Amino acid sequence: MGIKIKIAATAISILVISGCSNKSQPNEEMDHSTMNQEMEEMNHDMMEGHMSHDDVVSLNDSTGENELKIPVALERSNEEGVLYTVRAQKGKTEIFDGIETNTYGYNKSFLGPMLRLKKGETVKIRTINELNENTTFHWHGLEVSGEEDGGPHNILKPGEENVIEFKVTQEAATLWFHPHPEGKTAEQVYNGLAGLIYIEDENSKSLGLPNDYRKNDFPLIFQDKTFDDKKQLNYSATMNDDGTIGDTLLINGTLNPKLTVNKEKVRLRLLNGSNARDYTFKFNTGDSFLQIATDGGFLNEPVTLKEVTLTPSERAEIIVDFSQINTANDLALINEDGSVLLPFEVIDQSGVTSRVPKKLNDFSLTDKEMDLPVTKKVELFGMMDMVTINGKKFNPKRIDFTQKQGVTEVWEIYNRPDMMGGMIHPFHIHGTQFKILSRDGKEPPKNERGWKDSISIKPDEKVKIAIQFKHKGVYMFHCHILEHEDNGMMGQVKVE
């Protein structure tokens, strides 16, 4: 289901009078006619922005005519010390038959490869900017120093390159990477900059889960787009300050995809890579599945679900047993409104035998963590280009919080509703994985009792998290509706 917004026109005048309009200078006097004109313009803009989220456009059903493309597992470099080289580049991609669309990608024209890392190893990655604009390489969910995180301070200009080095200290997880330049993140992701990171460890190898990449272990990157009449991604024409929503779904960059599987247990790694759209994934048959992992690692035990909702940047790993699902009729993964996202073709072949153990991990919330006082409060508020955190817009020269390396603190994040009702904000913190302590004072649902780096927060909801940073540096925290991030809904924490 999409983001819900209630519209109350009375809020418009209050926002203007309080100085929220960005169309005039702070000390500039306005006569009544000018103010009325600005109010009318803002009213129109806000209605345009919010109506698209109050009644979110449905996605076109996948016809299933194209086999799903799976990102290439990038081969390790022969160069001494450097495991991977990742290039941000422009290109042309045949998304529609016979038509070339201008796109961005990593090491290819659209999207990017999968990088496989192992816990305990030291990794060097060379990043190269072959675009004609500034970019960064942000390692979303990876626990690295602030200098290597790839936030807006870590700009690479056109033609520049950099090598980062870090030791992998976190457990098995599905992470991703994308650009994070100030004010340009949304457009660069929309144009195609996104790639995957798989971390493996001894535990993940021993569990016996489906792990044959491209055969019974599939990443699914969900992104909605709007194409113009020439089948181009015209971001400036479709951009919405409250989050850009499209009518055409691409999974792994594939239009109208289907996935062919054997009658076996299959692992699907779901990533909401969209700018703003939420997805509630379920099967059209009503069959259940097992969720085994969150953003940053395995749950303690599999959770049986019939649907799972992910807001932008959230991940979930699920196991589907296609040997037990009735495939007599068309089988598909659908969205909450019934839109067909991914049809499946189940081949009458048994495939390999894998298992899902009852115990997957030893994640825990300690009594000490539960008893810690709240030391940092984050208030998310606003809409369109008037979004703020704790009443402020992002300033790269301002440090909003400080925290000691290796010390666990409790942050309280509150999504303050406005007079229009408010909207869901997916909240992300760089450079760490955190634990959800409570949602409005209650235990989080079972499928959120694992490591997280992004969390969906509803209007008027208050969430407490326990968070520790393993490394030093300056890290971003922000709304992962990418247009909100670009509009300044972001702060900085300095870890010392």
Strand order of the largest sheet: 12-11-10-14-19-16-17
What average pLDDT do the residues reach?
A: 90
CATH architecture of the largest domain: Sandwich
CATH homolog superfamily of the largest domain: Cupredoxins -  blue copper proteins
Name of the CATH class of the largest domain: Mainly Beta
How many runs of DSSP E, i.e. beta strands?
Answer: 31
Question: Roughly what fraction of the amino acids lie in strands?
Answer: 35-45%
How many angstroms separate the termini? Answer: 40 Å
Helical stretch tally: 7
Helix percentage range: 10-25%
Structural class: mainly beta
Report on the biggest sheet.
7 strands, mixed
Tally of distinct domains: 4
Which regions are unreliable across 5 or more consecutive residues at pLDDT < 50?
A: 1-30, 32-36, 38-44, 47-52
Question: How big is the Rg?
Answer: 22 Å
Determine the CATH topology of the largest domain: Immunoglobulin-like
Global geometry: globular
Family: Belongs to the multicopper oxidase family.
Pfam family, one: Cu-oxidase
Organism: Bacillus lumedeiriae
Keywords: Metal-binding, Oxidoreductase
Q: Would you write up a description of this structure?
A:
- By secondary structure, the chain is mostly beta strands.
- It has four domains: 10-54; 66-206, Sandwich (Immunoglobulin-like); 217-347, Immunoglobulin-like (Sandwich); 367-495, Sandwich (Immunoglobulin-like), CATH 2.60.40.
- Helices cover 11% and strands 37% of the residues.
- The chain is built from seven helices and 31 strands.
- The strands form six sheets. It has a seven-stranded mixed beta sheet with strand order 12-11-10-14-19-16-17, with no helix packed on it.
- β2 and β3 (99-106) form a beta hairpin.
- The longest helix has 23 residues, at 32-54.
- It is globular and about 60 Å long.
- The model is unreliable at 1-30, 32-36, 38-44 and 47-52 (pLDDT under 50).
